[in-house]
Amino acid sequence: MIMEGEPVNVNEFQELARQALPKMYYDYYSGGAEDQYTLKENVEAFRRITFRPRILVDVSRINFSTTVLGYKISAPIMVAPSAMHKLAHPEGEIATARAAAASNTIMVLSSMSSCSIEEVASSCNAIRFFQLYVYKNRDVAAQLVQRAERNGYKAIVLTVDAPMLGRREADIKNKMIVPPIKNLEGLVSTEVDNDEGSILEGFANGALDTSLCWRDIGWLRSITNLPILIKGVLTREDAIKATEVGVAGIVVSNHGARQLDYTPATITVLEEVVHAVGGKVPVFLDGGVRRGTDVFKALALGAQAVLIGRPVVYGLAAKGEYGVRKVFQMLKDELELTMALSGCPNVKDITRSHVKTEHEKIHSML
To answer: Which residues fall within 8 angstroms of residue 206, CB to CB, at 6 or more apart?
Structure first.
């Protein structure tokens, strides 16, 4: 696929990224676990949801700004945490952070970033959250949280779906490396003796705390004043537990289909989680968002906002900071058009009655 001129959608940025990146890095960013069933499903499931547009509504002024934990953002689209942005572009997370700031949105910095918590904080003024993995040495997590808090990050996003790393077969074949992880320097050794397969997998499985459980949310709350969101919820049972232990928000996520294959597409379980939470805390979604129409569908099914991971990395790999800004602009423009054509001038006007899921279509046929 050779493209003429500037990319016109996010999927075209993926193709530019594929052309720009070494195979090992492109495979790392684009790949999923095992058969990659969930990887395909995250995107495909959005396509099975259709619109019920409302006509003859005044859409001369469209406003898609919203708030997340009380912070105003220009659109309900945030930067999901993803690792090692310097593999995509020499400026790494600094470029991503500046693009997020220019786009007036919130970036969630990965604890596995190539640029440090401090470097990203000093790169530009913006609201930022910090994503946390808990390592076997709990003191490392405590230090990371304190550094994030000290450097003005406004929330901790705890990833809860990775007691071990998923089996990403492209990384095994490519013997995926672990470049320097700035945040972990002097805290966790990234040296791994693993001649067979993915060095990254060897590092993660040696370092991550497999004993992390619900009562540890209490421990995390005790060491920080920041609100805690948990990322990796896919069932009503866990959504209910999350609200009981006092989290400030939930991210419905299957880790970009990189952990357990054959988990459902996130958009198909969003409503289940939203209903279980019953408005007690905001619910967010990541996984498979590639169009403004996808953002609208997630909002209609109850998400407060979405997070995008791969599209950010593809924009970064293709065109640096400008590429990430462009990805955000594309999604915003598409969302604006979708809202206008659906008869929704404001995000609060987007309701459940504006979409029809596959389940409902089957139901209506019976």
So the answer is: 192
User: Is residue 107 classed as helix, strand or coil in its secondary structure?
Assistant: strand
Question: Residue 4: what pLDDT?
Answer: 62
What stretch of H or E contains 292? Answer: helix 292-300
Query: What single-letter DSSP state applies at residue 161?
Result: S
Q: How many angstroms separate the CA atoms of 229 and 219, rounded?
A: 14
Backbone angles phi, psi at 234, to 5 degrees: -130, 0
Place of tokens 């309900």: 76
Q: Are 80 and 109 in contact (CB under 8 A)?
A: no
Q: Which residue has the tokens 């619109």?
A: 51
Buried b (16+ CB within 10 A) or exposed e, 13-33: bbebbbebbeeebbbbbbbbb
Decide if 315 contacts 296 (C-beta within 8 A). Answer: no
Report the C-alpha gap between 189 and 229 in whole angstroms: 27
- Active site residue ranges: 255
Q: Read off the pTM.
A: 0.95
Burial call 311-334: b when 16+ CB within 10 Å, e when fewer = bbbbbbbbbbbebbbbbbebbbeb
Q: For the segment 178-218, what is each residue's pLDDT rounded down to a tens digit?
A: 787 889 988 987 776 666 677 788 887 788 899 999 999 99
C-alpha closest to that of 343 among 36, 25, 52, 130: 52
DSSP 208: B
Cα-only R_g, the chain: 20
